[in-house]
Amino acid sequence: MTTTTQKIETDVVLIGAGIMSATLGLLLKELQPDLKIEIFERLDVAAAESSDAWNNAGTGHAAFCELNYTPELEDGSVDVKKAVKISESFEVSRQFWAYLVEKNVLQNPENFIKSVPHLSFVWGDENVEYLRKRFNELQKFHLFKEMEFTDDANQIKEWAPLVMEGRKTKDKIAATTMKYGTDVNFGALTRSIFKYLETLDGVTVHFNHEVSSLKKRDTGIWRIKVKDLASGEKKKVYTPFVFIGAGGGSLLLLEKANIPEGEGYGGFPVSGQWLKCTNPEVIKKHAAKVYGKASVGAPPMSVPHIDTRMIDGEKALLFGPYAGFSTKFLKNGSYFDLIKSIELDNIKPMLGAGMKNIPLTKYLIEQVFQSSNDRMKALKEYVPSAKKEDWVLETAGQRVQVIKKDKDGNGVLEFGTEVVAAHDGSLAVLLGASPGASTATSIMIELLDKCFPEKMKSEAWQNKLKNMIPSYGQSLCQNTKLCDQVRKKTNEVLKLKV
């Protein structure tokens, strides 16, 4: 079969049709409506990988309940800096989504966001003391002023009856709750944004298209080779700016781009599974996201939680995730992804990170060889009355944790999300995982600062950003009045019943 090569010139190329590309594409079109944008996605639908509802926790990550964002330090104190930053960032996302609802870009916000209380739950003297210290530190910040702490079993039973049903332990227990918690269907949100983007002049979305190479020419323009997987047609796309938001596939594309800023980066793939409840009576008993402490050596994405979800209009109940190891970088990826990612410049960092994270390797091996009884034992720590026949195992998403060089050139495993940008701002790549989707708006605004610095300083862009995000340029942590105003407004617009 003969194939033709189509030539496309555009202002912006976005690779990957997940929440990051959706957010960046929409921000750019709001800031500069005349921009031409081409979007390429390897699969046949948007948000089918990390952004899909079944492939992530669906938690509106605001650091209300996620204990991995507030580590206990060697001196016994609890560091809440990351939690405060994440909480502020999620408020930025909520403001942007509320703006899109008011503009009628997003309709029926209840289809993608719901109010669900966020709880942290622990047991044992040391963990109870940790949670108390965490609560006391977070109370210093207005963003967490509504948080409640208790070590009273009856109060916890009121907040999360399923967690207490049948619990016979004599250990001390404690919990915190936050009414501003949310459940977010990032798949539904992302697809709604893409549906709108496709109606705009100058935006073309290509599904079933795979990027095979990226090369920067002497003119400063990027040449991207793309193949239509359905027809076999090849395209050469020329653009001054490229964003790669392809989930676990971003690392391989960063390596193809061959920018100095990308040297030394590697990736460690972690797969996941959920136990999904099939008993409607059990599902009815729980209405919260209850997070606990991760096992020693576990990656942050593996923090256990018993989780109320709203997916496609139906209430669901999940427990997990159970971590595993796969050499794939994407759920729909190749088993050769990890091998293909190894290059001369990242061998040392990857080996170094491996040596430093022996507990993680041990943890993943144990998880891979877990039996159904092992999984039920973990579930019963959070749902003591759980019955094996009420739960089925489901495959969750695939994540790639970032490995990067430290100051000595050795490797360190970086948990969270990271933007790697070319020095001239012509290319940016998003790597990593949680809290990712929840803080997409803040991450993309930081990206715009790096890649479009002059335009971001312009009065026109500044005014538009303040219109979209009322707190833009201000700290909600420091401006308590603004924080209350923003929360009240976004709750009303997003129809969140707090």
UniProtKB/TrEMBL annotation:
InterPro entries: FAD/NAD-bd_sf, MQO. Pathway: Carbohydrate metabolism; tricarboxylic acid cycle; oxaloacetate from (S)-malate (quinone route): step 1/1. It comes from the Bacteria. The keyword Oxidoreductase applies. Its cofactor is FAD. Keywords: FAD, Flavoprotein, Oxidoreductase, Tricarboxylic acid cycle. This is Probable malate:quinone oxidoreductase. It is an enzyme of class 1 (oxidoreductase). HAMAP family: MQO. Its EC number is 1.1.5.4. The keyword Iron does not apply. One of its GO terms (biological process) is tricarboxylic acid cycle. Coiled coil: none annotated. GO terms for molecular function: (S)-2-hydroxyglutarate dehydrogenase activity; L-malate dehydrogenase (quinone) activity. Belongs to the MQO family. It catalyses: (S)-malate + a quinone = a quinol + oxaloacetate.
